[in-house]
């Protein structure tokens, strides 16, 4: 009886009905694939980026990005936390973890160190906040972000490369960076590595590489971090004393800034051994430059 019903049902369906059903299934599958693509998780480094809002006594407000380091420190641009000779009254940071998309206020920060020549600033967390930026005790949410998503920038070891052959063509490699889009969330975008920039060292009589240039009409915020396709921090958008336009300062300049702080102020928020290796390589690189210069 069951067989007869099935057979009768098959006889009642014309060929066009079968095709319509198959087309509906295929369309549904394509729609689901498109939906899955749109819902694709962002790179992990997105959760290491904070939107900084900086308030000054005269009412000036600045916004830019900071990147989370170990122990609640953030690396950003010096330009963001200065307003002429004035320093910030309050600095708040908004972040997103992988459990919720919208950026929410997580902490209040203050300046720990500043280097206007390199264009970099180190901020430290002084209190945690609720989503409305009111001070509160540390929660599981705060601990999860600060413990899971800090950037270990010394894990990515690259040659010093402070002295380049200027005639050597730039490698066509992509750099990824965050943008704030719909739903007040971060998304990832990319550009190819830009033209290398150098400053002339009068003592060494050499052009030393320190940053990548970027087009004036390129829409990025100060402090915007840039990553390679493996998720390593490779630069920060800032303004240095070497050039009159903002640039993407190279990661070795960032490491030099952090290691100088560790040596001068005993800030052990990154591995001391990493700094020793970095500084040793830097010294060796400088020796090669000195020899090439005939000193």
Descriptive overview:
The structure is a single chain. This protein is an alpha+beta fold and 295 residues long. Helices cover 27% and strands 31% of the residues. The protein has helices at 2-12, 15-38, 140-148, 251-265, 272-292; strands at residues 49-55, 61-68, 73-77, 90-95, 104-115, 120-129, 135-136, 174-181, 185-192, 196-201, 206-212, 225-227, 233-238, 247-250. Helix 4 crosses helix 5. The longest helix has 24 residues, at 15-38. The relative contact order is 0.14. The model is unreliable at 1-19, 28-38 and 162-167 (pLDDT under 50).
Short structural description:
The chain is α+β, with helices and mostly antiparallel strands. It has five helices and 14 strands.
Judging from the principal axes of the Cα atoms, what is the shape? globular
How many runs of DSSP E, i.e. beta strands?
A: 14
What is the chains' assembly state? single chain
Strand order of the largest sheet: 1-2-3-6-5-4
What is the alpha-carbon Rg in Å?
25 Å
Query: What is the average of the pLDDT values?
Result: 79
Structural class: alpha+beta
Number of helices: 5
Beta-strand content: 25-35%
Q: How many angstroms does the end-to-end distance come to?
A: 100 Å
What helical percentage do the residues reach? 25-40%
- The ordered H/E elements are HHEEEEEEEHEEEEEEEHH
Largest sheet: 6 strands, antiparallel, barrel
Flag low-confidence runs.
1-19, 28-38, 162-167
